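Entry 14. Structure prediction run on the chain below.
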Amino acid sequence: MGYFCTMLSLESIYETLETRRKELGLSQAEVSVKAFGRADNSAFQGIRRGAWPSVQKLQALADALGLDFSFGQPKTRRKPPEVVIHVQGQDYASVPLYAAEVSAGPGAENDGVEVIEQLAFQRAWLRKMNVRPADACLLRVRGDSMSPGLRDGDVALIDRARTRIRNHRVYAFVDLDRQARIKRLQHLDDSTLLIRSDNPDHEWEIRKDGDMNRLTMIGEVVWSGHNWTK
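Output returned:
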């Protein structure tokens, strides 16, 4: 899934923050007060020296500067019109299933993002799940490391609007090797991310410091459907 792997360099991030700061006529310390409640320039200088900020710190800086921060699939200003299906008085939304897999094991490599099918979900159910149809997509799971909750061959419904990690939730993401994966994530501290498997036969993993922030989030898993087998 190539378009999930788009990332800015640290230099580009620093230039974007600095350009906006100067437009607003603020010092680095004044931005830090708005973002973190303390007057220093360590956040800016850390980025300038080559230290990757945490997603939370980058979000705080963006909020303080009035910037639109998105970590994950690039957002487009124009979205295709939503397809509404009416069946026996019920409204359904069409959600795309992509010709791509997310691995519950080491990782799945995907060369394309072709939509191979559209599945209908009740719009009322999506609202209850707090999922906008335009932010929803379906990906197929490969591997058994997230069983019994997610099995090999399952279809997972992903909310692409939920890219900020909430501890113990299951997320689809692109790892450092550009492999698409699906795991339970947990921040141990500001610089350590735990990548957990639900299947006890599979080991857990750690991403620290800059490596932690180089993961590209696809979105949170909000539902999955099992295939029935004999």
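The chain has two domains: 2-65, 84-225.
Filed with the rest of this week's runs.
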